[in-house]
Specification:
Strand order of the largest sheet: 9-6-5-4-3-12-13-14
Shape: globular
Distance between the termini: 25 Å
Mean pLDDT: 81
Length: 354
Amino acid sequence: MFREKLESWLSRRVPDRAVNLCFDLPAVLATDIGLHRSENQDRVAAMKISSRSSAGRPLTAVAVADGMGGMRDGGKCATIAMSSFFYALTLYRFQSLEQRVATAILHANDSVFELYGGNGGATLSAVLIDHKLKPVIVNIGDSRIYSFGNDVSVERLTVDDSLAEAVGGHGRDLLQFIGMGPGIQPHINAMPNSALKIAITTDGIHFLPTQTFNDILSHASDLKSAAERLAALARWCGGSDNASSALVDTVELSNILGTRDIEGIQLWDPFGSLQTLWVRGETERSEGNQSNVNLDPDERKRVPSATESEKAKAGARAGKSTEKKPRKPRKQKAADEDLQFEIEIESSEDPAEQ
C-alpha cells in the first residue's frame, strides 16, 4: 500500500547529512544529524500530486517533522506523522484545500496516537500549493515557517505551540504535537501574498541568532546555497540538535504546477526521490465519484462519493428507504477499480554509505 511504502522509504538507511536540489521542483531539502545526536529524528519531504480532473486536484506539499525529544521513538513518530499526512492528502483530494489539510493533520495525529497513546509525537509544519487556489500553511509544535525573498524582509509566519509563546509562560515544553490525541487544533492559515519564498525549519536551525539567520536567507544567491549555509552554521555553533530545512520558491512553483505533467505522485527527501506512475486508471462512472489510489478497504468506506450522499439525502426527503437491494456478485475488473502504481526510486545516496 502507498502509505506503507512511503513509511518504509522515509525509514531507510541514509547518510548523516544531505542536501537535495529537487529535480522538477523549485525546492531544496536538507538535513544534518548534528554533532551530538546518535539518531536523526527529523523528516523533511516534498510531494507533488499530478492528476487528471477525475482523480482530484494537482497539489504540492512541502513538509518538515521533528520527533519529540524525551518521548518514545521520536524518529519513528516523525516518519509516521509525515507518511500519514501525505497519504491523507491523496486520500481526501476532493475536499477544499483548507479542509484537506485539516483532515490530513487529524489523520496524522490519530495514526501516531494509536501507536503511542500520547507518549510519542512529532512537530509538523508544511506549505501546500494548488495553482488555482490560495496557498496554505499549517503548523503544529515548534518547527517554524518563514517567508523571504529578494528585497523582501524575512518574516516569521508561525507561532510555536510552546509554553513561552502560546500562553506567555516559561520553557519550551509543547502544548500541541502530532500524536497528542483528542483536542488537537492545527494552525492553518493562508500564505501571505508577500511570501515569494518559504523556509521551513526545525529548532536545530532556527536556534541561530535571528539576525544571522535572516542575513543568510536574504543574501544567499539561491536556495541551495541558503540551505547549505544554514546547516553549516548550525554545526559551527555546536550542532547540538538535528538541523533540517525545506526551502521553496513559491512563485516558480505556482507557475509550473498547472502545466501538463506525468500522471502520478512524485516524492523527494534530502537523500533522493521516489516516482509513482498511474499505469491503470479507474473508469469514470459518474461525475464527482472518488477514484482510489491503492486505498485500504476501511478507508474507502469512510469517503462516500458525492453521488451516493446526494442519493441518500434525496431518498430521505422523499420518505424512501435508501437501502440497496442485494445484487448478484459480478466479476471484478482490476483495471476499473483502482489506480495502480509503478514505483521507481532515484537515490542521491553514496553507495559507500549504505
